[in-house]
Amino acid sequence: MRLPSELDRLLREARGRVYTRTERVPLAGLDGWHEDPATGSIRHRSGGFFSVEGVGVRRPGHPVPHWEQPIINQPEIGLLGLLVKDFGGVPHCLVQLKAEPGNRNGIQLSPTVQATASNYRRVHGGSPVPYLEYFAGASPVSPASPRRRVVADVRQSEQGAWFLRKRNRNMVVEVTEEVEVREGFLWLTLTELHGLLAVEDLVNMDTRSVLACLPSGPAVAAGPAATAGPDDFAASVVRSGRGDPPALHPTEAVLSWITDARVRTELEVRPRRLDELARWRYDEEGVSHDSGRFFSVIGVRVEASGREVNGWSQPMLAPHGTGIVAFLVTRVAGVLHVLAQVRAEPGYADVAELAPTVQCVPENYDVLPPAARPAFLDDVLGADPADVRFDTVLSEEGGRFYHARTRHLVVETPHLPEPPDFRWLTLRQFSDLLRHSHYVSMEARSLLACLRSLAVAAREPDGVPS
Amino acid sequence: MRLPSELDRLLREARGRVYTRTERVPLAGLDGWHEDPATGSIRHRSGGFFSVEGVGVRRPGHPVPHWEQPIINQPEIGLLGLLVKDFGGVPHCLVQLKAEPGNRNGIQLSPTVQATASNYRRVHGGSPVPYLEYFAGASPVSPASPRRRVVADVRQSEQGAWFLRKRNRNMVVEVTEEVEVREGFLWLTLTELHGLLAVEDLVNMDTRSVLACLPSGPAVAAGPAATAGPDDFAASVVRSGRGDPPALHPTEAVLSWITDARVRTELEVRPRRLDELARWRYDEEGVSHDSGRFFSVIGVRVEASGREVNGWSQPMLAPHGTGIVAFLVTRVAGVLHVLAQVRAEPGYADVAELAPTVQCVPENYDVLPPAARPAFLDDVLGADPADVRFDTVLSEEGGRFYHARTRHLVVETPHLPEPPDFRWLTLRQFSDLLRHSHYVSMEARSLLACLRSLAVAAREPDGVPS
């Protein structure tokens, strides 16, 4: 896909100016970090940022009823903020070209603000976070600021297999006032930004998260596709986002299905010593599973330019293998339905969330019981290429995850029967749930942003304001 | 208020047959309970039911920035289920005449099912819970059972000052099939049941909770009041429930206000030994605050008839003083608005919930700093009687709380300015939030049920089916 020319120019220019160089170092010697003797956990000396801890997980009745693992504990609620502004009737959003140490390609597109509470409270003593005042002022929803309107403001989880109860505040604020465009930032139309999801490793995870929290309204759902016939795929996406009837399941039934899963699921997570986790080895290289699968916790030293701080060390989680997240989708009377899974993860604040139809790292199942193999994985991997509507590898968050990449797939299928933990939902049902916290997982939000991009794929990109 | 004659007859009859006799006994000698040496907590030998534990609470910036207290930890999610059925076009619900050891008057009206998980899994070896099959079957939302429709199904918190992360599943199921009416149960119309909220200590807390989770739809909001003029109070309640414009605040702004409070509030709850809580005395009589205020934890021996089990012992929480919960309400262009408070409590699963305008036990403020005195308390206590729309003392849950009573007030005021933690909301905005977990507190749900009853207060009671 061709990049908008302004973005292309800025990316080339920024890649010289903004970078991080990352060098692997032993976990034990990380500057500013220490091992807590009581728990074996790895903590920052400030008490801020995050820690790497051990947990034991018990899931009676699950194919893997017990396991232990390292997990990242980041109790602070960070901020992912996207500024939106209308230029000549076209909604634009302000994105940042941001380098993160875990990005395999350096710079990706981040939201206007992407900051942990430690960042914006300046625990590390760095420079202030640009544009924070639009989101994190004393009164972000002040009726006295009619030039700033909160479009979305909701706490959402992140990867429940890697983070213990991590939540970020996802905010979209629409402004009518003049906004200074600082170095490393640019306005893209919402259509352009969605279109860029088809570029490998470009739109970062936080941007995908906050894009998914946008109400499915005119911004994305408009356009000629809306009036196309029932056999037009893009039109079926638009209708699904608009909430055109019929949804297969009334919303009360969907809410009851989620409540039932959250009440029924037995999932117990208890702290364990990080240096005594069953089947994990903790040595010079970091913490790794004895099978070589899943992920390792590693140490890195980072040299950075164009960020708040010029250099630091930190632990990172380095997954082994490229992940797969996939939505099976089907058209019911011309309205796209998405096969959502209700999925429990040890790190979720509220037991279970709506997840992609398939979410896994296929290689991991070589060392797990056959019953653990995900439903529908073969439907996704064996799909006729003509049915694959979206297929792009995108990166996970480069501040915590090292070269973590996930192949995002949308595959059209006939209307399949639903196993108990699966339901066909419309995009409007997802949007309605996304106004509230902890219903839709990070992986599902990422795929929803990709899926919505298919509503506008056939359109010409709108112009960028000069 | 006159009781429906069938209810009056059943209550008289049941008071002879169903009862609990409660005798205070020392906490230390409770049959079936023991003190955990590691924590001082009081636990049941089965590991089920609940425990009484100690916590320390830190709230920087709050008038009481630190305190310690006993709290009830009941991690199991219980079920409050209400069966609803249409008889001749009139919606009815099946209530139970149920005696609880903490009820000062013995029998109150409970939902069709009111059961802890220990109850319905029969940890105590008692008889099966009647009507459970309508709610807690393997597949409560089976599309194969069109004769049973889930109307509401949501986990809600209970008193966050007394319970640590307690949640109950509130379910309303509408049936079209024949339902056997067992001894101690009867069908009341929804209008009758709402009307009975004006009777002291009759409609129990669990019934009020689940009634509040009913969608504000035709069931309660219908009737002649809907067509009355803008100066009719009942009509303003109906319009507010129906979601007639204008709501003072758009829903996005309300959601953002709640998100902001939950992100901003610093509230830390840590375990403490129950027998070493600062300012609490643990002796033969139980656990009590040295000021004599707040509440005590006491032990009781219960002799029961007409329940699953004939006798048992348990700890209970006995509050000192009658509580007050009050909504200030005002009419904006003929639509009732309710002044909701976003309120943090140590026991909430998600930091803060929407609470009544005023919620307190006034006597407690004799021993607290003056800054802790609740906003609007004087507006409520000093209200002109002509502005008081509802004023009834109702009981808190009699299974955990001993003679716990709360005066429920609805007071009409002019349109007052909103302090930061308060917003004027419509009943429809509350109903929309009540489809989701943990937005609306127990105390607010209880008052919402009372407030809705004012929409139908002017109507004649519907008939009861024979």
Automatic annotation (TrEMBL), chains A, B:
Secretion signal, residue range per the UniProt entry: none
InterPro entries: EvaA-like, EvaA-like_sf
dTDP-4-dehydro-6-deoxy-alpha-D-glucopyranose 2,3-dehydratase domain mapped to chain residues: 6-214, 252-451
Any one Pfam family match given in the protein's UniProt record, by short name: Hexose_dehydrat
GO molecular function terms listed in the Swiss-Prot or TrEMBL record: lyase activity
Gene3D superfamilies, alphabetized: EvaA sugar 2,3-dehydratase subunit (3.90.79.40)
Protein name: NDP-hexose 2,3-dehydratase
Organism, scientific name: Streptomyces taklimakanensis
